[in-house]
Every structure is written in C-alpha cells, then in structure tokens.
Amino acid sequence: MTKAEIIAEISSKTGIEKVDVQETVEAFFKVVKNSMVSGENVYVRGFGSFVVKKRAKKTARNISKNTAIIIPEHFVPSFKPAKTFVEKVKSGAKKASK
Predict the structure, then answer these.
(1) What is the pLDDT of residue 93?
(2) Four-CA torsion 60, 63, 68, 69, nearest 10 degrees
(3) Quick one: fold of 3-97?
C-alpha cells in the first residue's frame, strides 16, 4: 500500500478532503522525522515505536581491494511494532493464508 492509497482510504472512510488528509499525513511524517533527527523517540500506543538506535564503531572489509575499513559509530532509525499490533497481524495473516 502506497502513501497515496493510504490517503485515499482515510479520505473515503472519514469524508475529509484528500488534500487535507495529505497535509495531515505529511505533517505526521515530518514530525516523526524531525523528532528522530534530534534524537527523540516517537511512541504511538497500540501501533509501535519509532526509535533511534546507535550502531557501534566497527571494522569491515573491502573485498575488492582486500583492505580494512573503519565504519564510525552512527545512528539508524528503527521501528518496533507494539505487541497488540503484532498479534493482530499474526491472526490476520493466518486468516488470509487459509
């Protein structure tokens, strides 16, 4: 499902104009991105957590040149779904596969 499809479905279910829904969805994503860039985690109860994870410094290999490369520590965005969300997907996937 794409962002456009999400916007269309929300618009049809709520009766709100697509333009307004699009602005809201874009604003939500912007808030999540900006919060994570500043190092804050975003918790959405019943859905999941958008968290910033720290990756430690490590040594990797460039196999084409056979040299060692040092990858500095860095931060990566991550999503951890809520337990209730995982359970709904598990039960829904079982029904869909039958």
Answers:
(1) 72
(2) -60
(3) HU Protein; Chain A (4.10.520)
1: tokens are 């499902």
Which residue, among 67, 69, 50, 49, has the nearest Cα to 59 in the 3D structure? 69
Predicted pLDDT of residue 98:
56
Tell me if 31 sits within 8 A of 40, measured CB to CB: no
Counting DSSP H helices and E strands in the chain, the numbers are 3, 5
Q: Structure pTM?
A: 0.76
Size of the chain in residues: 98
Give the start-to-end residue ranges of the domains of the chain. Answer: 3-97
Measured distance CA(3)–CA(26) in Å, rounded? 9
Closest by alpha carbon to 77, among 47, 46, 48, 45? 48
Residue 67: band (very low, low, confident or very high) from pLDDT cuts 50, 70, 90: very high
